[in-house]
Amino acid sequence: MAIKEGLRPGGRSARVQESIHSAVRDLLEQQERATLTVPQIAARAGVTPSTIYRRWGDLSALLADVALARMQPDSEPANTGSLRGDLRAWAEQYLDEMSSEPGRNMMRDVQCSATPGYCVTILGGQLQTILARYPSADTPPSVDRLLNLVVAPSVFRILFSATPLTVPELHELIELALGQ
Q1: Nearest alpha carbon to residue 177 among 136, 135, 133, 131
Q2: pTM
Q3: Is the same domain home to 85 and 152?
Q4: Buried-state track 41-53, b at ≥16 Cβ within 10 A, e below 16
Q5: 83 and 134 in contact (C-beta within 8 Å)?
Q6: What residue numbers bound the domain in which 132 lies?
Q7: Which of 21, 37, 70 represents a domain boundary (last residue)?
Q8: Which of 17, 18, 83, 146 is deepest in the core (most CB within 10 A)?
């Protein structure tokens, strides 16, 4: 079931959503995700299970919504003074965060989302912020090139390999992307 769009920002709906999101985050810190249930979340959030089912449809859609909300960056990417440095700092932080168990779980939850393309929007926005800092850079890579050559291999290795990329491998991918 798709997450309902068009709800008014603020007001009771926003408070209920934040209460439920907060309950999910708290419970995930306290217990294994496999043991998480809608009734537990509802009890923690102070709502009925039907409120959750009506809004999200099922637990996987709720977890995906929480994961998407958590993926929103808290701040702009680090500014190191160079395009290469900014890309390295951003990619290293992304790799570190997403390689953790919570990061992997977040990625898996987002895959179950009705709007998985939202990740591309978030990541692409961060990369565009970096690229916009260096308008005079000698033929900077496109956002799509960075997503394809840096982000995609990182995500693949995080989700489907026993070992994520190493930092030197990540730097090689950035050099490839910068090489045009």
Answers
A1: 131
A2: 0.74
A3: yes
A4: bbebbebeeebbb
A5: yes
A6: 75-179
A7: 70
A8: 146
